[in-house]
């Protein structure tokens, strides 16, 4: 007797990680500060959640320079897109089971 | 610039807590073992998540006896129903923002 939370991915349990994925799903690439603005979190908090998603290979970084200043941009990987879509589908199913 | 994860409740971040609420939303009262069957979790894990939801006053317990055996049943409070509904609405909004 199992229920519909089965296909929810543990990596997306955190609201912040859910937020990062949502924002990266609709923006191709974002730097740290823009993500921070979107999500209204502290540097340390955002950094740790980004690292967790990077570790799952759900997001990746692209490092470059703007003038002499290093610039790191985050983007969603294909694996991340797939996992996030599956997660949203599972959430949708859970919501429908409640209606 | 804030996004749609704003109204997600921290108490429901865990899949197990989401599962408990989902199951209690469609079953008036359930005992520990039935919940455990539904959610496929260990005793300790379930107990700690139940305690967390009880602390938020989102669920409550009713203690009785079946013969001489104590029987504890869990149910969702009005506050819990409201919070869970709001959480599902916020999730629905997040999903729609991605479609």
TrEMBL record, chains A, B:
Highest rank taxon of the organism: Bacteria
A Pfam family of this chain: HTH_34
InterPro entries, per database record: WH-like_DNA-bd_sf, WH_DNA-bd_dom, WH_DNA-bd_sf
SUPFAM superfamilies on file: Winged helix' DNA-binding domain (SSF46785)
Ranges for domain Winged helix DNA-binding: 16-95
UniProt protein name: Transcriptional regulator
């Amino acid at each position: 007797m199992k229920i519909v939370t089965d296909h929810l991915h543990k990596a997306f349990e955190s609201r912040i990680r859910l937020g990062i994925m949502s924002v990266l799903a609709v923006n191709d690439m974002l730097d740290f500060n823009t993500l921070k603005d979107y999500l209204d979190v502290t540097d340390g908090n955002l950094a740790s959640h980004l690292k967790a998603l990077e570790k799952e290979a759900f997001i990746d970084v692209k490092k470059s320079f703007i003038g002499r200043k290093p610039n790191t941009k985050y983007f969603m990987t294909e694996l991340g897109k797939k996992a996030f879509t599956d997660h949203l589908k599972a959430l949708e199913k859970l919501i429908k089971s409640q209606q």
